[in-house]
Amino acid sequence: MLVVPLLESGASATSGETNVAHAVTLGVMSVMLLALTIWTAKGASKRKGGCFYKWGPTVMIGMSIFLSNANNIRQVLQDNDVWKSSTSGLRGFAGPGLFASSTAYICADSDSHCCPSTDPQYGATPWKTFYDSGCNATAGTPSCPHLDIPWTFVCDAGRGASYVQDFLALPCKENEGALLKGGHWGCTVKGAATNKDALVTLTNNTFVFGRKTGESTFRQAPNAADCAAEKIPLESCGWLNMMEHGCHQNMGITCLNSTGFAIIIVCVYSGFALLFIGSLWQAKICKKIDKARAQWGELRGENKSSGYTGHSPAPAPEAECKD
Q1: Cα 191 off chain centre by
Q2: How many whole angstroms separate alpha carbon 219 and alpha carbon 242?
Q3: What are the distances in angstroms from CA 142 to CA 5, 151, 180, 186?
Q4: Whole-angstrom distance, CA of residue 75 vs CA of residue 73
C-alpha cells in the first residue's frame, strides 16, 4: 500500500509529542519498506533472466527506503538539533540556500501568503496601514495620521516575542525603515513616542498584546468581555495575536523553499515512484496483463488463429503402454 506523503508536516519541532511522532513515523516506514525489500530479494533468486531483470525490483524498493523517508529523516534531524533550522529572515525560494537549513518552507504572513523577497505583488507596499478613524482624508493621503505595518515585521513576528517588542519600541517617525522593494514605511501619529503608542491611538486598542497568560506576552487570545467593556471589536482587540505564526505558517507546496522542494518533491515522490514501479515489476504485472488480455480474447471468440470454436477440444487418445 502506498502512503502519499503529506506536505503539511511540521516545519519545526513544537512539542515532545511531535518529536516522538516524527521518530515513530520514520521507524514504521523504514521497517515496512525493509521487510518488502527482503521479501523481494528472496523472490529475485527464483526469477529467470539477466541480472538486471532479476534484481531490478529489489534495487528500486531498496532505494525507496531512503528516498521516500527523506522528509521523515529531515524532521527527526531537526527535532534533535542535528540539522539546524534557520529563521534568519532570508526569504523566497532560495532562502538561506539549498540544504543550508533543515526548514522546508519559507515564511508566511498571518493570511498564509508566502512572505516576499522581491515579489512585486507584496514587496512594494506595507502589509497593512492603520489610519486615524477620525481622519476625513481619503485613506492613503499623506496628511492622514497612520502607522505602516511592514512585511519584515509581519514575517518575523512569529519567530518570538522579542521581534514584536522591538517593533513596538521603535520611535514613531516617518520613513522609519525600508521596504523590501526600496520604498519606505513609517509612523505619522503626532504625540506618539513609539509605534506602540501610535497603534493604541489609532485603533483604541488597549489590549495590544492580548490577555497575558503564562510566558507569552502577545500570543494569547484576548478576553471577549474585556474587549466589549472597552468597546473594542473582537477582531481588532489584541490584533497581534494573529502574528503568532508569522513564520512558516503556510506549510503548503507553494511555500516550499529550495531545501523543501529537493526533499519533498524530488526525493520523496521519486521514492514512492520507485516503490510503485518496483512492486509492479516484482508482481510481473506485464505478463499478467498479457495473459488476461489473451484469456479475454478467447472468451470473446476472437482467437481465430488458434482454432478456438468456443468448445473444449476433444481429449487426445491415451497412448498404449508398451512392455
Answers
A1: 44
A2: 8
A3: 50, 20, 20, 11
A4: 5
Grid cell of 182 as nine digits: 526600496
Torsion of CA 297, 302, 307, 313, to 10 degrees: 50
Packed helices 51-67 and 269-282: angle between N→C axes, nearest 10 degrees: 150
Mean pLDDT of 41-66: 83
- In angstroms, the CA 53 to CA 47 distance is 8
DSSP 174: T
Give the tens place of pLDDT for each residue, 97-154. 889 888 888 877 666 777 777 666 677 788 888 887 777 655 455 578 888 888 877 7
Buried b (16+ CB within 10 A) or exposed e, 119-146: beebbebbbeebbbeeeeeeeeeeebbb
The per-residue pLDDT for 179 is 83
Residue whose cell numbers read 527482503: 38
In degrees rounded to 5, what are phi and psi of residue 130?
Answer: -95, 125
Rounded distance between C-alpha atoms, residue 295 and residue 301, angstroms: 10
Compute the distance between CA of residue 140 and CA of residue 188 in angstroms, rounded to an integer: 12
H-only helix segments in 212-268: 224-229, 258-260
Collapsing DSSP states into helix, strand and coil, what is residue 304? helix
pLDDT tens across 201-250, in order?
887 554 454 444 444 455 556 667 766 776 666 666 666 655 554 555 56
User: Which three three-digit cell numbers place residue 109?
Assistant: 504572513
Q: pLDDT band for 12, please (50, 70, 90 cuts).
A: very low
CA atoms within 13 A on the CB side of 254: 8
Report the C-alpha gap between 96 and 106 in whole angstroms. 10
The gap from C-alpha 63 to its chain's centroid, in whole angstroms, comes to 24
**Which residues, 6+ apart, have CB-to-CB distance to 200 below 8 Å?**
206, 208
- Amino acid making up residue 88: S
| Cell 505558517, residue located | 249
